[in-house]
Amino acid sequence: MIQFYHVTKSYGGPRPAVSDVTFQLKKGEMVYLTGPSGAGKSTIIKLILCAEEPNDGQILVAGRNVARLKQKDIPGLRRSIGVVFQDFKLIERKSIFENVALSLRVAGAREEKIREKTDSVLKALDIYKKKDSYPLELSGGEQQRAALARALVKEPVILLADEPTGNLDYDTTRIIMGIIKDINALGTTIILATHNRELIEMMPRRLLHIDAGVVNE
Ligand SMILES: Nc1ncnc2c1ncn2[C@@H]1O[C@H](COP(=O)(O)OP(=O)(O)OP(=O)(O)O)[C@@H](O)[C@H]1O
Ligand SMILES: [Mg+2]
Question: Starting at the edge strand that comes first in sequence, how are the strands of the sheet with 2-9 ordered?
Fold first, then answer.
């Protein structure tokens, strides 16, 4: 489902952010991408989304060569991927409901379907009562759950979650990890970037460790 072959990405600094990285993820598999701050975790997620271009190597996502995608094909790739960004990237001038509903609207879903699916995912993430609030009116943990709701509402083939529990307390983290487990059991391929070892203990899965841009299994 996701394949990296000798991928290097440099932002122009003294060493590449990601260096000669090779790994493969099968459909339905889940991995933790672990490693210290600055190791290159978010960069790997951005490369999969085609938000950054590699300097070298090949990236295949759902059979598509990401480096060779034309600009017009990028939205198609992103439609099949749910992303929880480390900094959430919620749209400040839209309500939580509208943030979560947006991908369904763009895909042309019917109003009734949009309401049904959006309400259901907001309830599952226990954020339904904030649906008419705006992102800046929410706590960090609430924004994080809204960001996860937005990633999940479109029932993505791939979920990329960058520190999705970084702002949550232990009990909420357990609930969120339960939801992620269920989604994985339904066949979604998942990459979860984190430096929190507690998550891994809660739900052990394959580990890809990255340090200074170099990946080790
Ligand atoms: N847009 C950018 N421009 C320049 N350098 C960048 C950029 N984004 C990331 N870097 C650098 O690339 C390296 C890897 O960053 P990245 O964000 O991938 O790390 P990370 O593992 O996600 O860290 P954290 O755990 O703190 O989120 C760091 O040295 C960082 O400073
Ligand atoms: Mg990061």
Answer: 18-25, 2-9, 56-61, 64-65
Distance 122 CA to ligand 1 centre (A): 31
The residue count of the chain comes to: 217
Burial of 11 (0-12, 13-18, 19+ CB in 10 A): exposed
Checking if the pLDDT of 144 tops 90, the result is yes
Q: Residue 76 pLDDT more than 90?
A: no
Judge contact between 25 and 206, C-beta under 8 A.
Answer: no
Cα–Cα distance, 107 to 49 (Å, whole number): 18
Counting ligand 1 atoms within 8 A of each CB, the residue from 7, 11, 33 with the most, and so the one to mutate, is 11
Contact partners, residue 182, CB within 8 Å, separation at least 6: none
- Is residue 187 scored above 90 in pLDDT? yes
- Asked if residue 161 lies in contact with residue 192, where contact means CB atoms within 8 angstroms, the answer is yes
User: How far apart, in Å, do the first and last CA atoms of the chain sit?
Assistant: 18
CB of residue 18 inside a 6 A radius of ligand 1: no
Q: Is 194 helix (H, G, I), strand (E, B) or coil?
A: strand
Beta bridge partners of 191: 31, 160
Q: How far apart are CA 47 and CA 134, in angstroms?
A: 29
Please state, in angstroms and rounded to a whole number, the distance separating the CA atoms of residues 193 and 138. 23
